[in-house]
Amino acid sequence: MPLTGPLAFLDDELAALRAQGVYRWPRRLTGEQAPVCVYDGRRVINLCSNNYLGLANDPRLKAAARTAIDEYGVGSGAVRTIAGNLAIHEQVEARLAAFKHTEAALLYQSGFTANAGTVSAILGRGDVVVSDELNHASIIDGCRLSGAERKIFPHRDVDAARRALADAREGASGPRKVLLITDGVFSMDGDVAPLPALVAAAEEFGAIMMVDDAHASGVMGAAGRGTVDHFGLHGRVHIQVGTLSKAWACLGGYVAGSRTLIEFLMQRARPLLFSTSHPPSVAATALAALDRIEADPGLIERLWDNTRFFRAGLARLGFDTGASETPITPIMIGDEAKAMRFSDRLFEEGVFALGIAYPTVPRGRARVRTIVTAGHTRAQLSEALDVCGRVGREMGVVG
Fold first, then answer.
1. Which residues partner with 45 through β-bridges?
2. Could you report the per-residue pLDDT of 264-306, keeping only the tens digit for each?
3. Which one of 110, 146, 187, 245 is the catalytic residue?
4. For residue 81, what is the DSSP state?
5. Catalytic site includes residue 246
6. Of 89, 151, 215, 338, which residue is the catalytic one?
7. Is 120 a catalytic residue?
8. Domains of the chain from N-terminus onward
9. How far apart are the first and last CA of the chain?
């Protein structure tokens, strides 16, 4: 039924999205998150999941969650600073700090709150943030919430970042903080930040350096420690953000850095002060995932073998995969409605790969994003490539 009153404009907005061919509603998963699973009643090869290492159904992770429920119950009961600080939360943080080679780490309820809550806590009005134009929405929102001046540099453009840092320093009317922030791996294009050059620029201009490694956690660096480890930059990045919701197959985010940083965030980060902490089963799952990842480097090797195989197959078929260097491999389409139709046709033929359009990506840069995992078999990936090629030729995406 159409709305009346002050929210009536929402019907018009939704009608416009439908007319543009970009209206989307989440598909329903029935059963386990797996390389082949059932969405909307259709069995499909899943190329949408961030379950990079295939741990979402690992029996050791499931057992850890069940044990934690028996020991702690199903909920933490409160925010951490009131009554929701569990021993198992502190165990996870100690393990993450050791894993990331930092003094300390702090759990957040999500990767989104880790970015937004940290940026908005350490910066304020009069400060400056220098940010890559394709940084994640959680970084953008954190910058807005902080009230700091925003200087956005073109994607991966180190010279532009340096100019922004120089301008931030020269334009200061008094002491102010300057933050240089970037994704480690960019979630829509799958490319990697030029981190060594950005770190050097931050050091030159005396800026705080922060990296969001959500899509590098469990994917890049030794045992999946992220881009800081991949580039050998330990001790030179002040704030590292990671996630537990992708390769770790559970939920949450974290910040790793100095003990002083972590103590300050515990006092001032609003998501920690005003939102209930992780259920104990989630914390236990994170510990089990870390055990699994550190014990079996073959998981990450399989992920990268599958990534290289699938990307090479797309290239042979004639698809444009942009600048991807990671398991995130976009099939660039351009036109938004066409990208959505391409995604829908793939689904009809048994491959689930999501169409991505504005505002998630810039206008004219619509794509179908694919992600392979360590759990995919070569037969599944070969079948997915066959479907992509057939539908691509049908729709004129490839010749």
1. 36, 351
2. 999 999 999 999 999 999 999 999 999 999 999 999 999 999 9
3. 187
4. I
5. yes
6. 215
7. no
8. 21-50+297-395 (3.90.1150.10), 59-295 (3.40.640.10)
9. 44
